[in-house]
Amino acid sequence: MSATQTTIITYLGTPIFGITLSILLFLFGQWLFKIGKGFFLFQPLFVGMVLGIFVLWLMAKAFGVNVTWFYTNAYKPGGDIIFWFLNPATIAFAVPLYKRNDIVKRFWLEILLSLIIGLFISLFVIYGVSKLLGLDNNGIASMLPQAATTAIAMPISGAIGGTPAITAMACILNAVLIYALATWLIKIFHLTEPIGQGLGLGTAGHTVGSAKALQLSSASGAMAAIAVVIISIVVDLVVPTFANFMGLIK
C-alpha cells in the first residue's frame, strides 16, 4: 500500500467522511430543488447521486488513486451506515398501509392482481429492451429488480447476478422521471381515481413517486405507500424466479 493510500485511510477512511458527504450533497440538492421551484432534475436524491459520483471521481483523481479503491476505502464505511437507514425507512411505509387498511381490505384482489400483472409485463419489457441494447446477463440482472424500492432492489440484484450500484441508479432515475412526468401521465391515461394514481406512482416512482402522490391527495399518497410495500414483496418473490427461468442465474 502506497503512502497516499495509507493517508487516505487514516484521514478519510472513517464513517464520518461518507456520512458528512452524503448529508451535505443531499442538503445541497434540497436547496437547488427549492430555488428551482421543484424542477425535476434538482430532485435531492438525483442531485446527491450525480454529484456524489462526480465528487468521488474528482477526489480519487486528485489523490492519484483508483476510483473504485477510493470509493471502497474512503466513502463506503460511512455510506454503508447511510444505506442501513433505508431499511427502516422502507418499513415505515407500513404505517400508511395500516392507516388505510380499509382500502386494502376492500380492493385487495384488484390491487394485488394489478401489481402482479404489471410487474410481469415490465419484466418482459425490461428483458426485451435490455437484449435489444446488447446488455449482458449482469446488465439485465441489474435492471430487472428496479420495480422495487432501492433498499429491496439492491440485495435482489446481487442475488441474481446483477450489480447493486447499477440497480440503485436505475431505481433513482426511474423515480426522478416519474416525478417529472407524473402529471402528464395521469392526464394521458385518465387516472382520475386516487387508487390508480397512487398505485402507479408508488410502483414506478417508489418514495419519490409517493411524495408526488401525496401532493395529489392523502388517499393517493396512502395508496402509493401501499404499492411500495406490496410491489417490493412481489418483486422479492417473482424476480429471482424470472431470472432463473431466463437463465440469468448460473
Automatic annotation (TrEMBL):
Bilayer disposition of the protein: Multi-pass membrane protein
Principal location class: membrane
Family annotation (InterPro entries): CidB/LrgB
Record bears the keyword Transmembrane: yes
UniProt keyword terms in alphabetical order: Membrane, Transmembrane, Transmembrane helix
A family per Pfam: LrgB
Record protein name field: Antiholin-like protein LrgB
Native source species: Lentilactobacillus raoultii
Gene: lrgB
